[in-house]
Amino acid sequence: MAHVIVIGSGFGGSIAAKRFTEAGHTVELLEMGEDWRNQVTPQSADPAFLFRLLRDYPHDYLLTKPKLLVAQGMGLGGGSLVYSAIHLRAPQIAFHGWPAGYDRAHLDPYYARVEQRLGVAPLPGVEEFPRSRAFIDGAAAAGLPRPAPNPLALAGCTACGWCVPLCGFGKKTTMAHTYLADAERTGKLTVRTRRKAAYIGRAGNKYRVACWKTEAVKRDYQRVNDGPLVMVEGDKVVVACGAIESPVLLERSRAADLPEGWEPLRAFPTARLGKGIDGTGDFLQGGFVPRAVDGYKGSVMMMHVDLGEFVLEDVHGIPVGATVMLETRPHGVKKAWGQAYKERFRDYGRHMLGVAIIGRSGPGTANNISVRDKGGIAVTSTAAYTPPPGSLEAARALIKGLGGELADSPWELTKTAFTVHPVGGCAMGDPADADAVVSAGDLAVRENPGLHVIDGSVLPLSALRNPSHTISAVAERAMDVILGVHPRDRWPS
Ligand SMILES: Cc1cc2nc3c(=O)[nH]c(=O)nc-3n(C[C@H](O)[C@H](O)[C@H](O)COP(=O)(O)OP(=O)(O)OC[C@H]3O[C@@H](n4cnc5c(N)ncnc54)[C@H](O)[C@@H]3O)c2cc1C
Questions:
Q1: CATH code, residues 51-75+121-166+277-419
Q2: Is the model's pLDDT at 336 over the cut of 60?
């Protein structure tokens, strides 16, 4: 039996931990954030709280022109702590350009497995909420397809509208409460929170991981980049730090000044390491509509309009992260304070309908983001980040269909695009794809058997939908290959 070090506890890391422990292996899980399971979690947009839960890469590390703000979850459970719990399967068209063996039919059993474990289902009575009704009517008026309920990983939702950043009522079936709880029940999981992996090396046929302790850091753990290191050793390592941090960890490992007795990772293809990341086309369009939509009732995003290449989703009128970080404000209000702002906000919760766009960023801008370690993470893109073609027009038509007035988007106000759905950076590929960082079958880093990347960074292209479900299905599939559940030759690698 192997000792496996899993780095990161989001969707990919939690699935790897569960599968390895249930197969009899021991797992040591390193997570740089905190364990929130027994902590009081306020419904608060207080930055001091948010910055303990969200990794954002703000201006001092952000070199993008024009600006692109990337935010991701952090803590035991990773993105599942802060996400909106939406689990949409990717449409077949999303898989064009993926390695052989990846299509909707292949992934369907894995999607189903994840849905079962997380209890994924639409919110009961979803179409009765005023926001859903408005969304349905707006879509009809704009000539768009009828919205369908979002499949959600929520159990016993109180419909308070505050799923993000963390359900204060514990109704989100996070990875900490499901996959990691399963792993813990085996007695073979050791969880080490507030450990940030610094680099990975080898010692004979073992892998070693050096990590920083983040106990002394009050927030923004992702910025820790020096200090005393602790070492752990294992037979296998799973890198599951997400699309921004996984490529950076591999890059840091290549460049690290290794301690005595350590050997470097074997050389692997790096032409695409940290490159080819897409923000999944994330864009937000808000609008004030005459009817009361009571945006704060229901879950944060309940329905979606399926337009093939992208979806539109209704979003709570005050998306917490965007409001706090980008100062989303009503149209015509120049400052984030003052009488005009107060007056406009009086009806904000009642009449603001947010429409989120999710798909693949526009031609020339998709797969255009890159990350590097520069003593802090630097995110760059060489062209403006644009929404999927036709998506802004569709979102605006929906709001106008309700007689609504468009609000300035965060991106118009601050010239800053915003994504919470980055994918890519360690893209997987077929054997013939010499530049792929990992093999499509077992997601092993090329030339480094036993070192795997299992998270959103391996997606070669956006799934055209909120990515967690596809990341999870890909992780389950890879674990089947790694554990030999299916003969390898059935799975191109
Ligand atoms: C506000 C918000 C709402 C969202 N809503 C949805 C939604 O409804 N549906 C959906 O599909 N997606 C949603 N997403 C996106 C989703 O959260 C991510 O796509 C998903 O979590 C990515 O999974 P992952 O396994 O790649 O990594 P993550 O879930 O990001 O997990 C990576 C983990 O690794 C840890 N880590 C990183 N670096 C290190 C290191 N060096 N050492 C140790 N630990 C490290 C991080 O702290 C984190 O916990 C949302 C995201 C946000 C921010």
A1: 3.30.560
A2: no
Ligand 1-lining residues (CB < 6 angstroms): 7-12, 30-33, 71-75, 78-79, 82-86, 164, 196-197, 240-242, 245, 249, 321, 420-421, 455-456, 466-469, 471
Strand 236-239 versus strand 451-453 pairing type:
parallel
Pick the CATH number of 3-41+173-272+426-490 from 3.40.1500.20, 3.40.50.720, 3.50.50.60, 3.40.190.10: 3.50.50.60
Compute, in angstroms, the gap from residue 288 CA to the centroid of ligand 1. Answer: 31
Provide the terminal-to-terminal Cα distance of the chain, rounded to the nearest Å. 24
Which residue from 150, 466, 94 is spatially nearest to 280, judged by alpha carbons? 466
pTM of the model: 0.95
- Per domain, the residue ranges of the chain are 3-41+173-272+426-490, 51-75+121-166+277-419
pLDDT digits (tens, 9 = 90+) for 249-276: 999 999 999 999 999 999 999 999 999 9
User: How far is ligand 1, taken at its centre, from the CA of residue 144, in Å?
Assistant: 31
